[in-house]
Design a protein that fits this description.
Elements: H1 6-19, H2 21-39, H3 47-62, H4 70-100
Helix pairs in contact: 1-2
Length: 101
């Protein structure tokens, strides 16, 4: 219930901008900081996922093993993409179900 997608963000932004423009700027700052923090999570396809891949490569090199194969990296990235897309669909569905109630 606490997640909102693009539709929910638009609704909140519309209600906040009607109150005052300063509150709207504050909301934009909160969204920007939240996106920055979420981007650093170790989810594949995000920057945190790239950091995990680099860490795996460094550890494998330190152990004398070759770096991860391109097949592994592609599967790692696709799993993150599927997760992000599923989350996007879920929160958008959640927004629409909240509107229709």
């Amino acid at each position: 219930k606490g997640l909102s997608g693009p539709v929910g963000i638009f609704q909140v932004s519309y209600s906040v901008v009607q109150k005052s423009f300063g509150n709207f700027l504050w909301l934009l700052c909160l969204i920007t900081v939240n996106l920055g923090i979420m981007n650093l999570l170790p989810i594949p396809i995000l920057d945190g996922g790239h950091n995990v891949l680099l860490l795996i490569e460094v550890v494998r090199k330190w152990m004398g093993k070759p770096p991860p194969s391109e097949k592994f990296i592609a599967a790692f990235q696709y799993s993150g993409l599927i997760f992000i897309l599923a989350l996007f669909v879920f929160v958008t569905f959640n927004d629409f179900s909240r509107i229709l109630r």
